[in-house]
């Protein structure tokens, strides 16, 4: 899959974490049986993309070694490809070596880079010719909502130009909810996501069970499905093209209902 395949109807990216410490316990797949069952469930429920992560990036976590991430990722992808050879795979990593291995050995189509701004990663993705998710994760320190949007828009414009210079043209933009932003900035950015469409690239929104939901509602990530559904619906009204989620069935229902509403 590339960005040309993302039509007028938004698509769902299902999250598979082969880590023991991801912030949402329900997303952890620590054995082959769980990897396969979760992948099968997500595909059956409507996921067009499976996003595999082998190194937790939750706030406060320490990244595992490069060797450990490579080992975890290669094992998970081998398991998934054994049963689902045609599924579109996205690789959640900030390491160029993991990106290269995943594309060259297992045919991954998308690199989902949580940190961005890495020239080595840009060069690698340019060589591989795959799609690239560019996420904003810097602290913004905005004086106003307009200033917030301006700074994030400028970041994307500058990094997209760098990517194009490295031969990367199949780009997806992720506003980076929960990364380097205050709670107020997260909600302000959600309300202004449509403005990022002016960049001319698909928008990925990943807010599934995140702190902006469960902390606001004084609940836990395990209880944050309803809040996730609400914010995913708002993201769709703001032009989201890809919803990255732990709960595919509920996200697909959001898309189906929104699509009916949107044609009226």
Describe the fold and architecture.
It is a single chain. The protein has nine helices and eight strands. Helix 5 (145-165) links the parallel strand 5 (131-135) and strand 6 (171-174). The model has no long low-confidence stretch (mean pLDDT 90). Helix 2 runs parallel beside helix 3. The chain has an eight-stranded parallel sheet. It has helices spanning 32-45, 66-83, 96-106, 119-128, 145-165, 183-191, 211-217, 225-237, 248-262; strands at 11-17, 49-53, 88-92, 110-113, 131-135, 171-174, 204-205, 242-245. With 264 residues, the protein is α/β, with parallel strands linked by helices. The chain is 45% helix and 14% strand.
